[in-house]
Amino acid sequence: MTAREIALRVLVELDGMKKSDELLNRMLETSHLERSDRALAKELVAGTLKYRRQCDYVIERFYRHDYAKAAEVLKNILRLGVYQLLRLDRVPKSAAVNESVKLARKFKGDHLAKLVNGLLRNISKATIDLDAWTADMPEAQRLSILYSFPEWLAARWLARYGPDATLAMLAHGNLPPATGYRINRLKADPETLLARPELSDAKRVADAEGLDRFFFSKSFDRMEPLLKEGLVSVQNPAQGFACLLAAPQPGGAVLDMCAAPGGKATFMAELMENRGRVIALDRTPAKVARIASNAEALGITIIEPREGDALTFDPECAVDTLLLDAPCTGTGVLGRRAELRWRTTPEKLRELAGLQKAMLDRAASLLRPGGVLIYATCSVEPEENEQQAEAFLQRHPDFVTEASRLTLPGSSEGFDGGYAARFRKLEA
Questions:
Q1: How far is Cα 232 from Cα 211, in angstroms, rounded to an integer?
Q2: CA 407-409-410 angle, 5° bins
Q3: Is the pLDDT of residue 208 over 70?
Q4: What pLDDT does residue 286 have?
């Protein structure tokens, strides 16, 4: 299969449960594509998913029939073609059109191949004027097309954060996600490691709160040996902040209630100098195995990977520090998960807020008096963050808030969005 055919198959097979990157990686494993074609397939999947709303808007202006009734495979062929025409300068127009026509002929026959050919040949940067076409629209609708985001989400952000922050978040969501790395201080000194030639392009996070052990790099090939040696691990600094807020002490007992893939659990173990206990819980055996593998690579021995449900699990020990990195809408990481912006809905938000409430109540019951509870999400929605924290305190007067932080995507270069709050359980 070609890169474009693999991309199309991923887009067609994607459903509400599957993740595009997992589907794509499985298909690439059995393909014989060169590295450049693999990169093209990844770009086409991520880009077409992100720009789906904008592509559909453009296609509808040129489509002569009822686009809503078109077959999904045809819609995705057209989206792939339009994405290449409008966003991939390195792909010649002839290649974008001709390869789309080939896909249409293979999957839908000659008649629709002609439709695809005629439509795409009429589309180019010269025939598209999104600014003019959307100028008279309500602001949320206009932004949803220009940045290809759900209109309801753009409207929420405008109302909550204002136009400047909203534009920054929308723009950030369409950038290639930055790869952050955390230096493992159990094995490496940050100053010495960052002086190595292979890290000459590393951009260290300047932060007095402890995030200076994080850096960004675009050279994954150079990083691979360091990852295998366990000198670094992949983690965005926005995720690391929750662990720094927890400040787990060496010798303590920590429970990470939703631990997979283990980034926060391993960071807390590093902060504890590999002394004490970190119980890392997750529901599925494959994810539990991944936690164990990541801990082993980093030389961490205090992590206890456990399989179980966060709502019923009993650690059977006094917990000093509990981290609840709760399931959430993920609106702080929409640039990292291409399809997530289309799966997140107001109904899903309400459903997850209910689950978060139940998990927080369970967490409160497991923590010893005087212990620390960290509640974290990768969301920027108040129902999952500030409002959830306020409601928790009302239900649990034996807890107090000691600190909290909301990070908006795009507010700091390379940082994902997310929220973390630190609660202390009062002594009896």
A1: 14
A2: 115
A3: no
A4: 93
The three state secondary structure string of the chain is CCHHHHHHHHHHHCCCCCCHHHHHHHHHHCCCCCHHHHHHHHHHHHHHHHCHHHHHHHHHHHCCCCHHHCCHHHHHHHHHHHHHHHHCCCCCHHHHHHHHHHHHHHHHCHHHHHHHHHHHHCCCCCCCCHHHHHCCCCHHHHHHHHCCCCHHHHHHHHHHHHHHHHHHHHHHHCCCCCCEEEECCCCCCHHHHHCCHHHCCCEECCCCCCHHHEEECCCHHHHHHHHHHCCEEECCHHHHHHHHHHCCCCCCEEEECCCCCCHHHHHHHHHCCCCCEEEEEECCHHHHHHHHHHHHHCCCCCEEEEECCCCCCCCCCCEEEEEEECCCCCCCCCCCCCCHHHHCCHHHHHHHHHHHHHHHHHHHHHEEEEEEEEEEECCCCCCCCHHHHHHHHHHCCCEEEEEEEEECCCCCCCCCCEEEEEEEECCC
Q: Which single residue is written with the structure tokens 């994902």?
A: 416
Q: Which of 36-45, 164-173, 215-224, 374-383 has the lowest mean pLDDT?
A: 215-224
Nearest to 146 by CA among 128, 131, 163: 131
Q: What is the per-residue pLDDT across 68-110, written as a single tens digit (0 to 9) for each?
A: 999 999 999 999 999 999 999 999 999 999 999 999 999 999 9
422-to-84, 105, 167, 199, 392 alpha-carbon distances in Å: 45, 57, 29, 34, 12
Token duo for residue 337: 């998960």
Across 251-275, average pLDDT: 97
CA–CA distance, 87 with 74 (Å, rounded to integer):
20
Q: pTM for this structure?
A: 0.94
Pair of tokens at residue 250: 């060496």
Q: Report the alpha-carbon distance of residue 368 to residue 94 in Å, rounded.
A: 66
Instruction: Record the tokens describing residue 331, joined without a space.
Output: 């609106």
